[in-house]
Amino acid sequence: MLGNIGETFTLDRPAFYLITFIVICNFVYVVFFKDKLSPINYILINSLFFVLIGAYLTFQSGIIVDELNLSGDSLTLILLIVSGLFLILSVLYKKD
Fold first, then answer.
1. What b/e string do you get for 49-66 counting C-beta neighbours within 10 Å, with b at 16 or more?
2. Residue 67 in contact with residue 9, Cβ under 8 Å?
3. Are residues 70 and 62 in contact, defined by beta-carbon separation less than 8 angstroms?
4. CB-CB contact of 19 with 56 (8 Å)
5. What is the DSSP string of 11-67?
6. Distance CA 68, CA 62 (A)
7. How far from 46 is each of 18, 26, 49, 68, CA to CA, in Å?
8. What is the pLDDT of residues 26-71, one digit of tens each?
9. Of the listed ranges 7-16, 40-49, 83-92, the one predicted with least confidence
């Protein structure tokens, strides 16, 4: 069963904390650092946060799948690996 009625589902709360943090960072960048920080570096920082969110969500979905006795989705893991590889390639081929 899914648990007791009235329990709060909080497994995805840290993902929303990270998303809120990224939105706040984007706001601060647009308002204060637009001319001081290069857009390439900022895109790489945002990409890193999104890969971290994807890794966290993959981890949490593994916990949920285990608790509910379901089978996991291999496509999400493959997509996480591909996005991590693209992040690493972006950092390696960055031109200043």
1. eebebbebbbeebeeeee
2. no
3. no
4. no
5. TTHHHHHHHHHHHHHHHHIIIIITTTS-HHHHHHHHHHHHHHHHHHHHHHHHHHHHH
6. 10
7. 11, 9, 5, 33
8. 888 878 877 777 778 878 888 888 899 889 888 988 888 888 888 8
9. 7-16
